[in-house]
């Protein structure tokens, strides 16, 4: 038997940038701490991007693609990643990804023929829950890697599985597994979830993936034990599985605020430029602009790689930001109803807006995509107005930046709730696809957070405490190891022991 095969881990992320990035970061961590062989499996275009942004000289990780043609599944050609799809098309991609099962099965079977034994384990995404069937058929341990946080994932699982909002007429409700005092609100649910009843396509698909992932041998979660104790307690209780905390899985440039300049050459830089412009130049412009401003004075605004807001809300946000007088960098994506891949249109913003705020050096408007890691790790950035996607939250909290929440979809509203109520680092401005916030409220909240007085100051203090805990979790000092490193080593020992038994 070949010893490489004995320590071979196969990883299968969901087809979205926000999932592929932490999977690659997890693979890198395992690579650094062991002599294991790691193979990341995905569709051809995702593997092509991974290969072209991860120089072979920097890694021993293998990348393997499975045949996939998006147009066979009613998706636009070359759509192998949620980034290029509208919210309503994402369900088709989740559905289509299930068709990878037979070729994934063949891949594992070929690996066994080649090496004489199955991989040590398969680690797959929650949304690739079917991979557990393949693992089981080869009697290989299977682990689910949760790229989200513990509280948000626990709420997402419990609400999709139990539909607690359907059991009451009131707007507020409690969620199985959560303390009675931790109430949720109907407006925190995506309209699809509000309408779901267990018989529709969304419920069937999502419930199936969650239930499959509950049959795993355990879960890895992209969080830190010390920052989410309540969420982890609940997640462990409702899944009944061991949960190893292995976060924050961030690109290396973010582990140190002063080391940001290495990002563009970072092997983990898989965030592709959407602007069509030279990414290096766009980044340089941002950094120069940021460096012109005093420390912690700039608000960064982004709704992530998949979400956007309505055109009326975009106008209110624009006016509120301008009225606040605070400097800002804002990544503007096409508003709801416009082609997600379409060109920027000046009419989305008030007349003459971009020129006005740029001339005054108050605002920098970026079209579609920003070098987020560079921006967050620059000392002039003081806070983040975000859709509360978990990667963005870890990237921001790791820098000790408070958050203005504008959650839109998935588990974002639960992340925002936890960060506001538990961590005290966030203030939620508005929420949901049907959000309605006025410019005056935008102005008030931006001032409150950026002035760093009263509540704003308290948020900053708490964000710095969380940053300290996050950084400690991945620190090593002689024999002493931070909780996330300890947890990852414990996971790897457990997997090796299960093979030896
Ligand atoms: N991102 C970026 N530039 C952008 C928007 C997003 O680099 O203009 C990166 C961001 O740093 C993060 C990821 O894309 O790593 C977004 O993941 P997140 O979980 O925050 O949100 P999602 O896009 O999955 O909703």
Automatic annotation (TrEMBL):
The keyword Zinc does not apply. Residues 8-251 form the Glycosyltransferase N-terminal domain. InterPro entries: Glyco_transf_N (IPR058980), UDP_glucos_trans (IPR002213), UDP_glycos_trans_CS (IPR035595). Pfam families: Glyco_transf_N, UDPGT. Its EC number is 2.4.1.-. Keywords: Glycosyltransferase, Transferase. GO terms for molecular function: UDP-glucosyltransferase activity. Belongs to the UDP-glycosyltransferase family. This is Glycosyltransferase.
């Amino acid at each position: 038997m070949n010893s490489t095969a004995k320590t071979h881990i196969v990883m299968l992320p969901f087809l979205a940038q926000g999932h592929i990035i932490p999977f690659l970061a997890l693979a890198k961590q395992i690579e650094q701490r062991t002599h294991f062989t790691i193979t990341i499996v995905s569709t051809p275009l995702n593997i092509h991007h991974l290969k072209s942004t991860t120089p072979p000289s920097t890694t021993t990780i293998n990348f393997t693609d499975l045949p996939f043609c998006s147009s066979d599944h009613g998706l636009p050609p070359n759509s192998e990643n949620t980034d290029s799809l509208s919210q309503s098309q994402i369900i088709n991609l989740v559905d289509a990804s299930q068709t990878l099962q037979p070729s994934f099965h063949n891949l594992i079977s070929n690996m066994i023929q080649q090496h004489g034994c199955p991989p040590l384990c398969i680690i797959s995404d929650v949304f690739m829950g079917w991979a557990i069937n393949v693992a089981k058929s080869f009697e290989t341990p299977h682990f689910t890697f949760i790229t989200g946080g513990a509280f948000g994932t626990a709420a997402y699982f419990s609400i999709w599985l139990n539909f607690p909002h359907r059991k009451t007429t009131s707007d507020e409700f409690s969620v199985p597994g959560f303390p009675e005092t931790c109430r949720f609100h109907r407006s925190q649910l995506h309209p699809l979830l509000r309408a779901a009843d267990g018989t529709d396509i969304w419920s069937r698909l999502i419930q199936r993936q969650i239930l499959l992932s509950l049959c795993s041998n355990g879960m890895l979660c992209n969080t830190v034990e010390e920052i989410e104790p309540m969420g982890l307690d609940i997640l462990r209780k409702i899944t009944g599985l061991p949960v190893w905390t292995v976060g924050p899985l961030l690109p290396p440039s973010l582990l140190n605020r002063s080391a940001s300049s290495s990002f563009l050459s970072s092997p983990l830089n898989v965030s592709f430029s959407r602007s069509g412009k030279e990414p290096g130049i766009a980044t340089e412009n941002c950094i120069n602009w940021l460096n012109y401003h005093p420390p912690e004075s700039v608000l960064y605004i982004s709704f992530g790689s998949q979400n956007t807001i309505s055109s009326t809300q975009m106008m209110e946000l624009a006016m509120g930001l301008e009225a606040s007088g605070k400097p800002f960098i804002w990544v503007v994506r096409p508003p709801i109803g416009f082609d997600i891949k379409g060109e920027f249109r000046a009419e989305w913003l008030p007349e003459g807006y971009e020129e006005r705020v740029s001339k005054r050096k108050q605002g920098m408007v970026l079209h579609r995509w920003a070098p987020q890691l560079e921006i967050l790790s620059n000392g002039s950035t003081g806070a983040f107005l975000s859709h509360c996607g978990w990667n963005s939250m870890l990237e921001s909290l790791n820098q000790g930046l408070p958050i203005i929440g504008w959650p839109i979809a998935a588990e974002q509203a639960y992340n925002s709730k936890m960060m506001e109520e538990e961590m005290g680092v966030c203030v939620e401005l508005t929420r949901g696809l049907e959000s309605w916030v006025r410019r005056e409220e935008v102005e008030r909240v931006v001032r409150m957070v950026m002035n760093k007085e009263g509540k704003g100051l308290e948020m900053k203090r708490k964000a710095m405490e969380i940053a300290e805990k996050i950084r400690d979790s991945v620190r090593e000092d002689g024999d002493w190891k931070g909780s996330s490193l300890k947890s990852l080593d414990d996971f790897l020992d457990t997997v090796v022991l299960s093979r030896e038994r």
